[in-house]
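pls ignore typos typing on phone
manganese (II) ion + seq
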Amino acid sequence: MDATCARRRARLLESIGSGVLLLPAAPRSFRNADVEHEYRQDSDFHYLSGFDEPESVLVLVPKSESPFVLFVRPRDPKRETWDGPRAGVEGAVSQFGASAAFDIAELDQKLPELLQDSARLFYRLGRDRSFDDRVLRAIDRVRAMAKHGKYWPTEIVEPETLLHEMRLLKEPEELSLMRRALDITKEAHLAAMAQAEPGQYEYEIEALISSIFRKHGAERPAYPPIVGSGPNATILHYRARDRRVNPGDLLLIDAGCEYAYYASDVTRTFPASGEFSPCQRAIYEVVLDAQLAAIEKVRPGATLEEIHNAALGVVCDGLRRLGLLDGEPQKIMDEKRYKPYFMHRTSHYLGMDVHDAGSYFQLGKPRPLETGMVITVEPGVYISQSADQVPTEYRGIGVRIEDDVLVVPGGSEVLSDAIPKRVDEVERACRS
Ligand code: GLY
Ligand code: MN
Ligand code: MN
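k done
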């Protein structure tokens, strides 16, 4: 991690040139009184430092003799008895490679010095207004020294423009962590297929999945797991997880663990009692064909727009064949008549965050994929129980199939390929 972070910082220091980059740690957040929500470091902060303590600030100053500065909580035996060990100022240098480190209490005093004589500041304004104030005050203090020949940052640039471009293209170390996350996620989905059965509550299946994540050392789910049975599978961000699974239900499980700060994001849909009904199978095969057609498009140079359109074409065709949509295929597409059944996009970037960093458009146009990007491919068909226009036997069926796909030269690699999705494989996994 140390060497990896150092290499990333070196690359970034080069692109910052004569500017300065300022990055605060993720804020702590309180649930009530002195009870905190679980702390997770900001992904950018972790990416550049591996330092996961709150109340820290990272500064990169390329032109300085100390180009990597950390402000951190000092050692405090009393507090450490309550909250656990801190690296402290010395640990920031000796364990995390800071070229200089200071007590976080010194930030306001030191900041003007760090900002002076840099015309450009890389800092994200608007995320934390009280921190913005401190930064603007520091700039004011440098500006006040103009008559002594100092200059101050006159340009404030979003660090994302550099940093998120780096995060978008995964390094070998990152890919091995993502593969590990997916190994664990695979175990969870296989266990769910094998062990879920009618009569259980959705939360029992969620507990099974989360326990497997933790058992294998994943810190947490990368996002709240979705476990939707029967008609709940048609609710995109279903959260309640309190319904009892009926025989004949489909179960839609969208769950992926976070491992060492890397996310996985996988959806599988399977029959609770082990066998698809003819209608469930018909919808499932439409979604599977759409997903395979979309994955087929993934390669350097392709756009997420093209990948989405490939999925959309197959979904529209399939729903026409089943009599759920009628009319000219082109007209269905133009009039977006698929929307009640397929209302989300097919792909997003994946990395440290489930909806990962990186721009989707360049100069207003969908950006072409590049080797080293990881995306999801996740079409779905959701037929609401109140869809009166649809034959009764199709109502309440929801299917999504989601894989994580790495863009490689000339094509793609499906990183989550080992998790069954063909009908016979899924039925076999449910019986095992
Ligand atoms: N699980 C979140 C998503 O699929 O985007
Ligand atoms: Mn996703
Ligand atoms: Mn998902």
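The two ends are 39 Å apart (CA to CA). The first strand starts at residue 20 and ends at 24. more later
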